[in-house]
Design brief:
Blueprint lengths: L1 E6 L3 H10 L6 E4 L16 E2 L10 H10 L2 H8 L3 E3 L2 E5 L2 H17 L6 E4 L1 H7 L9 E5 L3 E3 L1 H14 L3 E3 L4 E7 L2 E6 L3 E9 L5 H6 L8 E11 L10 E4 L9 E4 L5 E4 L3 E2 L10 H14 L8 E12 L5 E4 L5 E5 L5 H18 L38 E3 L4 E2 H8 L8 H8 L12 H12 L20 H9 L1
Parallel strand pairs: 1-2, 1-12, 2-9, 5-14, 12-20
Antiparallel strand pairs: 3-8, 4-8, 5-7, 6-7, 10-11, 11-12, 13-16, 13-17, 13-18, 15-16, 19-20, 21-22
Helix pairs in contact: 1-6, 1-9, 2-9, 10-12
């Protein structure tokens, strides 16, 4: 019997599991896929938002600003990659400037300190972003905005939770839940699990989980956002995170850099029918490129590396759903769309308080270890690595990103079992460089084959059933240039 079971090993579920692992509890984290962070948490902009993005008086408004303030300490503990870059919201006309003023006032209402925000003009904008469009008339500047690697953050949270005693159950899709005699019986495709308390953090499928206990007084509908990632040669174009002032027609697109230094633009927003459709389309990618050029004109589409898409779990309630249901002990953490990544550590703390109020006895551990060492090793110009070196620490497997055999072995030998090359990618940044895995894919497969003692032909690139249709970048470049 577990004290608490958490369904969903995305960023919210993993943050909750890690927060609960600070206490003397029997805990399990249940995930339907073969790895953590395979849903919305692996495919988003990776922005640690300022509190201003959420309306004052909402759960989003309460938890976004709290979550933002927690990232620096979390990164010091978990080493997932976080940079406080600041960010601008751009105004191109008088209506946009009125929007900036509303954003500023909302920022104050949610508790954003005045010294972190201001509206700037002209040369002040160029000092922050020299390559921003000359058509920009004003900008809301928020210094507390940052960027992170969303899947590395999720992996770090889940890994630290497991290291502190959480029982992670992968490939364990939940197919039924019943409550009887004061506890929940959670049936997965593999087993039946008993738990006194149950948290629904199932992301895009949270309404399906809620329906198993007839508490689905909301629906989750997928909003697809598409993105374009460019090579690091374009990263000099952006110093911070650049937004566009939203208007009734569009929320605009973002121009930013990833924590690993790639220039990135997106997303759009498309309401779609399928909860697994993360395909990319020429029409929407072209829209994103055109919109991004309003902010930063001079990026080179010939330096595009890939497109991708993610799904945001929008709810019919329009706000985060974080509450205990009519079934005592069953708690929803649903409808966590943007700014869910930013809010996730604060959501975890709120869930712990809800559990406490519901009667869960919380006694802090003496031996909780908050530390999780990094997998990726920083390398300077003196790094003496080479391809096919005998020393794993110097044997370069991914030459674009200088990922070594030792880093891949470290990823494979941690507390979360992994078995695909994409799982290695999410931990080491291999496969993400200029050649897009043409060089390193087969080399990674050989290492996985050797370490897991399975035939190399059985090593998969990805383990999800659905393979999205992604635009061929080479064909995309030709079409844009024609």
């Amino acid at each position: 019997m577990y004290d608490v079971a958490v369904i969903g090993a995305g960023v919210v579920g993993s943050a909750i599991a890690r927060e609960l692992s600070k206490y003397q509890l029997e805990l399990t984290l249940i995930e339907k896929e073969s790895d953590v962070s395979t849903g919305a948490s692996k495919a988003n902009t990776g922005i640690v938002h300022g509190g201003y993005v959420a309306k004052a008086g909402t759960l989003k408004g309460e938890l976004c600003i709290k979550g933002n303030s927690m990232y620096q300490k979390l990164n010091e503990e978990l080493n997932f990659g976080y940079k406080k870059t600041g960010g601008l919201v751009l105004a191109f006309d008088e209506e946009d400037e009125k929007t900036l003023e509303r954003i500023y006032q909302n920022a104050l209402k949610v508790g954003q300190p005045e010294e972190e925000i201001e509206i700037i003009y002209g040369d002040q904008i160029k000092e922050v972003e020299p390559h921003v469009s000359d058509q920009v008339q004003a900008a809301f500047y928020c210094k507390s905005i940052g960027v992170t690697s969303p899947y590395e953050f999720t992996i770090a949270l889940a890994e630290n939770a497991v290291d502190n005693g959480v029982d992670l159950k992968l490939e364990s899709e939940v197919i039924n839940i019943e409550k009887d005699n004061g506890y929940f019986e959670i049936e997965t495709v593999n087993e039946k699990i008993k738990s006194r308390y149950l948290i629904n953090a199932a992301g895009i499928y949270a309404d399906r989980i809620a329906s198993m206990l007839n508490t689905d007084d909301f629906e989750i509908y997928p909003m697809r956002g598409e993105y374009v990632v460019f090579s690091k040669s374009q990263s000099h174009l952006v110093n911070s995170v650049i937004f566009q002032a939203p208007n009734p027609k569009t929320k605009g697109v973002v121009a930013t850099t990833t924590t690993h230094g790639n220039f990135m633009i997106g997303p759009n927003a498309e309401e779609i029918d399928k909860k697994n459709d993360v395909s990319t389309t020429y029409k929407e990618i072209k829209y994103i490129i055109d919109q991004a050029r309003r902010s930063v004109l001079d990026f080179d589409t010939n330096r595009m590396l890939r497109t991708f898409a993610g799904l945001r779990p929008k709810s019919t309630r329009g706000d985060f759903i974080i509450e205990e249901t009519e079934h005592k002990g069953f708690i929803q953490a649903a409808g966590i769309d943007s700014p869910g990544l930013t809010s996730s550590p604060a959501i975890a703390k709120k869930l712990v308080n809800i559990l406490k109020d519901s009667g869960l006895k919380l006694i802090k551990k003496d031996d909780f270890n908050p530390q999780r060492p990094a997998i990726v090793v920083e390398k300077d110009e003196d790094f003496a690595g080479e391809i096919d070196h005998q020393d794993p620490e110097k044997n370069i497997i991914c030459r674009c990103e200088t990922v070594t055999e030792a880093e891949i072995l470290d990823a494979l030998n941690r507390s979360i079992p992994i078995k695909t090359t994409d799982a290695v990618k999410r931990r080491t940044w291999a496969k993400t460089g200029e050649c897009q895995a043409n060089f390193c894919e087969s080399r990674i497969k050989k290492i996985i084959s050797r370490e897991l003692n399975i035939p190399v032909e059985e090593v998969k690139n990805r383990d999800e059933d659905y393979v999205p249709e992604r635009l061929n970048v080479y064909e995309l470049k030709k079409k844009l240039n024609s």
